[in-house]
């Protein structure tokens, strides 16, 4: 490794770390503000609130009907995870194992929903879903959320499947395994770590997916993040602390899954799709 | 000998199935069909439908009426400039911050804690960041309070419900995204190249300017494009943290209002198409300028 020992280099390094520190400090302070406010009795014009209480949680829970919202949220996420896993893994297997004319076009087709922001394709998609009557229903929300997650699973799984030696499958065939047995006893155990990682990433992304759910959700098919948006949007109607309590409930739901996901995946995978190359 | 010469398989050639398999079409290839149909139905078809619908104005008139209305109404066409005025500075700030930090972090042995912290705002999402910043940057928030305690300002700065609130939220959610992409490109360059330059006496700035930057340029162009399209489609924070009727009336607000408040799906689709074309235009311009830079291997192998 190259070591720069000039004063300029040291100052530069210090400036860079100071920027990182400033960013993270503000980020954590922002989160701490929400948490503090949710436990505050009255908080006006002081560093810390006048007193502490947990009653905002019970009032937020009943005011925003969080129990129903949470049930819908997990039903949507469960359906999205299951369907995107089933569609994504099979397609990724075909794309990883076979070379056929038009494959590049197909990969581009799967890449586009990840590159185009949800707001751009969400409006025409919501229009179509409204015209077919799916919008506002549970399955409309699931369908909209699947648009970016199916390609995401495909693109995460392709490199993972490519690294599994096809000779293993050939050997299983030689010993008389049919397709079903090959899948259950050979492929699934080998693919399981990759599938788990991909689906956890889908889960974390779907909880926070605001735009698509917002555009197609109806009153009974809102997920937690959309309910939070409407609560903040109508701020003034409810106490700030109540909205903050809801935000904390949302944060906890997201962070539990993030912590579980981080046990299996590299944090950079949440942003970049493929596995990162190990640095030399 | 006779048996081989008269084998029917050779006279008729391989069967259709064998010929397809040789080109890569067999039962395994068919597994791609469900996902492809799904993508066609829910991604390609809505886009095509929206494109056609945008030429069929709800209020009647000729096929270009929606687009003519967009470009003649300042309340509508100014959204493009307003959105660009947010998205381009934010993307540049994020990228210019990300490059030096990525170069520093690349030398770290344990990057996991830092990357985990940076993934937090992406995972929490724009709505939560907007809600948090409303409190944190508000006139009574800790940010203004700290600045006032240090005597840097005498009046609280107005940082929410205006341009700067949206700017801050786009930095908080956009910087980690830009940084992690940049980091993956920076770590993909073989450090042996830099060591060779250092051996030959290049200073830190020269190594960056003449070794890393040319190799990094294609990656930075892609990072810019991805960060830009994310910032360009900003929606929740522009509503919650900005002035959705004034300086931060971005194009996605105009599109969502047209489609879901005025129930003019045709106009909404037209605005969404304009949004897509502006994004596409900037992305094509950036990627085309990529051709001006070095393209080639970024590894230190011989040859």
From TrEMBL, chain A:
Report how it sits in the membrane: Multi-pass membrane protein
Per UniProt, the keywords (alphabetical) are: Cell inner membrane, Cell membrane, Membrane, Transmembrane, Transmembrane helix, Transport
Q: Where are the transmembrane segments?
A: 12-35, 69-93, 105-126, 138-161, 182-208, 214-235, 247-265
Q: What is this protein called?
A: ABC transporter permease
InterPro entries linked:
MetI-like (IPR000515), MetI-like_sf (IPR035906)
What lineage does UniProt assign to this protein's organism?
Bacteria, Pseudomonadati, Pseudomonadota, Alphaproteobacteria, Hyphomicrobiales
Per the record's keyword annotation, is Flavoprotein included, yes or no?
A: no
Residue ranges occupied by any ABC transmembrane type-1 domain in the UniProt entry: 70-261
Localization, per the record, is: Cell inner membrane; Cell membrane
Q: Which CDD domains match?
A: TM_PBP2
What the record says about family reads: Belongs to the binding-protein-dependent transport system permease family.
TrEMBL record, chain B:
Where is the protein localized?
Cell membrane
InterPro entries tied to this protein = MetI-like (IPR000515), MetI-like_sf (IPR035906)
Look up the domain of life of the source: Bacteria
Query: What does the record say about its membrane topology?
Result: Multi-pass membrane protein
| Main location, first listed in the record | membrane
Instruction: List each copy of the ABC transmembrane type-1 domain by range.
Output: 80-288
From the UniProt annotation, give the residues forming the signal peptide: none
Q: List the transmembrane segments.
A: 27-48, 84-105, 117-138, 163-186, 211-232, 270-293
What keywords appear on the UniProt entry?
Cell membrane, Membrane, Transmembrane, Transmembrane helix, Transport
UniProt record similarity statement: Belongs to the binding-protein-dependent transport system permease family. CysTW subfamily.
Any idea what this protein is called? ABC transporter permease
Organism, as annotated:
Microvirga arabica
